[in-house]
Amino acid sequence: MVNTQKWQGSRIFFNLMAIAIISVVSVISVIPFIMVISGSFSDNSAIIRDGYSLLPREANLDAYRMIFLFPKEVARSYLISTTVTVSGTLGGLVIMTMAGYALQRKDLKYRNQLAFFFYFTTLFSGGLVPWYMVVSALGMRETLWALIVPMMCSSFYILLIRNFIRTIPDSLTESAKIDGGGDLYILIRIIIPLAKPILATVGLFLALAYWNDWYLTSLFVRKNTNWPLQFRLYFILSNQIAISTGGAEHFVGRSLPTEAVKLANAVISTGPIILLYPFLQKYFVQGITIGAVKG
Amino acid sequence: MTNSKSALTAAEARKFNPLVVFSAELWKNKVLYLMVLPAIVFFITFSYVPMVGIYYAFTNYNYVDGLFGSPFVGLKNFQYFFYGGWNSPVWLLTRNTVLYNLVFIFLGNALQCFIAILITEVPGRLFKRVTQSAILMPYFVSFVIIHAIAYNFFNAEFGTLNTFLKSVGANTIDVYGIPWAWPFIVLFFNIWKGLGYGTVVYLASIMGIDREIYEAARIDGCGVFKEIRYITVPLLKPTFIMLVLFSLGGIMRGQFELFYQLIGRNGQLFPLTDIIDTYIYRSLTINFNIGLSTAAGLYQSVFGLITVLVTNAIIKRNNPEQALF
After folding, report:
1. Is A234 an 8 Å CB contact of chain B?
2. Is the ipTM of this complex over 0.95?
3. CATH code at A84?
4. Do A208 and A178 sit in the same domain of this protein?
5. Do B301 and A18 touch (CB under 8 A)?
6. Assuming Cys at both sites, which of A183, A254, A262, B147 could form a disulfide with B261, CB separation 3.0 to 4.6 Å?
7. A1 at interface of B, judged by CB pairs closer than 8 A
8. What is the tally of structural domains in chain A?
9. Are both A134 and A172 inside the same structural domain?
10. What digits encode the pLDDT tens for the residues A84-126?
11. pTM
12. Which of residues 59-118 of A touch B (CB under 8 A)?
């Protein structure tokens, strides 16, 4: 009886403390987004007079109106981000699924050597410069290829897919083999449907990496007609760099972006992710869990 | 008789000829090898061919003469990188990279564990779901957004911080001119972005703990604090140690995007915030010093390989099943 009393006491105290801490951490996680969104809806002259604040100042849609005054620019970056994300993700999935499937086949004599061949690249690399020179030598500079191809494959994902396919029982593929189905048939008809969870996970992480990438653009693409959203945003945010590298022609015909416009661009660049987040979150959580258990 | 015997040995010899064995295997599984081929081509192109380019580190590279035509300068690039004792680039960059990563790894994992334990124990499904979504959100945005957030908050003229300071009548501050503030800002954003992901990993690990242990403890009158201290924490310890060790293997790899988006080219802040990755990037894209940049990259790769091998040896001794190789 005494025990139960004590248990309840400590439980109530713990719950209050835990709710308080988790709430504070959640608010800290979200508040920067709210501030950016508030800024984007603020009146620009109000920002210049009083500065940004937590809630919008003299809220209006001017910043968004200004961006959509020249909708072509944003639309083009959207198109580029989407093209890069979709083709990179699909291409990467196809290449890595085939590799992962072949690597787990026990009748493939050199499977372990090949796995090591892939794995070794995570242990040692030539570094940024030699890699940069190879991509340049392939003539990918200034093209979308430079934004798609160099990050298509990762040995970690290949081995993750291999490990998952390994858990599919052989009995499921045996009958197809007896019926005379080839390796490609087995992969497409039997393995891929069963490996959907891992393929969805890898696909989502790959798509996120492509959508959020600005690094490849900063290295290989100077031409602003081939800029994806994230790099365009980076360019807009860092004005000094913009002027010093002679990129001012990007703003020809209109004034430099105002404060509110900068943040409105941030909101527009992240938009799709935040909109998709509630639907995709479940799959990401599953994916992180699969990766954590297997990796 | 003798003829057939020698024919037999010839056939047997063929079986052991490595080239024959190799091509027979390729032919037998041709479809499977064709399936791996694109990935092989990818890694040869983007990982193995660049390894040849390590030679850049030993040249005074110029674009006209190319990789093997540029003058060979031996270890001169390394000398520059290593010159200056405690003020040498190598020491400052290694110190920054390693120290930042150590704090990121230990503090990050500890907080992720802590939040995961709280979320497991707290009542209310909806509360758990909503807060978990909130904490995971920063993981999904690009580092450019972190740039935007930092700008929005710290900007000297219009930043939210200074708006607040003005409203309470205090003096405004230009955070971009205060070098010592940035290690904390960088740390904050690192923890902020990674907290949700790590929490999910630890939550999965806690879910794997046998519920019966908790029920038994409850029947014995064990309170929630004791439960955490004597059941959850000890059972999470192996996961914690493994994740920390794996991260320690990559201690030479800096968080390039985080540092570059927050610090950028603000040279005033470099002494406390420059890491190997940002140094290599600037050497390549601003100074176009190919030799030096490659040398720094090679140093990072070699040192990085050593740390992976050491941590793997430690993992192998404690927990052979989890070892990488």
Report:
1. yes
2. no
3. 1.10.3720.10
4. yes
5. no
6. B147
7. no
8. 2
9. yes
10. 999 999 999 999 999 999 999 888 888 899 999 999 998 899 8
11. 0.89
12. 95-96, 98-99, 101-103, 105, 107-110, 114, 116-118
